[in-house]
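Below is how a single chain appears once it has passed through the pipeline. First comes the sequence as given, then the structure the pipeline wrote out for it. We keep one example in the README because the format questions we get most often are answered faster by looking than by reading.
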Amino acid sequence: MKTMRTLNFMVLKSFIPVFITALSFFVLILQMVDLFANLWRYLNQDVSLANIVVIQLYYLPKCISFALPISVLFSTAYCLGEAYTKNELIAVFGAGIPLVRFVFPLLFAGILISAFGFLFEEYFVIETFKQKNDTVKAVLNESESFSNSNVTVLGENVRTIYHADYYNDQNNSLTGLIVTKRTERGGFQQRIDAETAVWADGLWNLQKVRVFTFRDGEIFEEDFDALTDPEIALNPANFRNVTSNISEMRRKEAEEWLETLQRTGLPYREALTEYYNRYSFMFAPFVVALLSSAIGGRFRKNILLMSLLTSLVFSVIYYVAQMILRLLAKHGYVPPLVGAWSALLFFLFFGVILMRGART
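Resulting structure:
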């Protein structure tokens, strides 16, 4: 038991410094990529150095979140490659200790980093990433309009359908409003046409209204200069042209947003895929720890270069595969759950296969 504790300590002692160094390096790379990608925009708008520094500080937690899996991949492969090259594992394997048991501390570290990454993302990264995006919009004078055209929304009671030619977010008004009411069985009950509607005191005040009501097998028509119906009280926020980024929402907010998209009939596949991807990405450090444990000992020369190259190659393959699957999910070719989890499950399966074939 004492020998195994000593062995675990030795493995972690070699892993942790390399992991911290790798994390710092990859975070720096991500920071530089974001900075140079937006530098020309900052220069065009004469953004001050202080604002640029603030933006990069807000982006730092997101960089850490992105860099965790690739840092685990690199540090695990590098440490095992070093151990193989220095023949330090001869005694370990000679004592009958299998590779899986030897890399157990690394796999456990991968689980801990996965849990940390999820909590870090949920309670810190989301807020700072949103602040970063808001600050960029502010310093670049990028205005966002919530007015919308040709919008159709399902009411809260599911029996009412709203359609408007145009929603003006400045004064909370609708133009060319058509409200259709259905019976509990889904049959036609009433249609209300209004040239304009203005939101006030929790209701829509309709102007120049024509009402068609189905009653006793006939349709009756009535005209009103103005009309207020207690059942027509859907909040104006439902008509907004909202392009919310689910990566800027916490779990509860994301669930509510997905429910709103599904209820109002708006496209939700991409948002649902991103929501599932938040959970699949949580397991990425563990999966890459398993993967790199199997390939780390295959390098006998140029360990630093080969470990770095392998980490970058697998990371690119993973992110490209994930991007393609998310696009397929967005366009309905695969379910959102498949689009979010397939790449991770494939790498998990691939890591298990490599581990079984690794030399011990």
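The mean pLDDT is 82.

See the next section for the split statistics.
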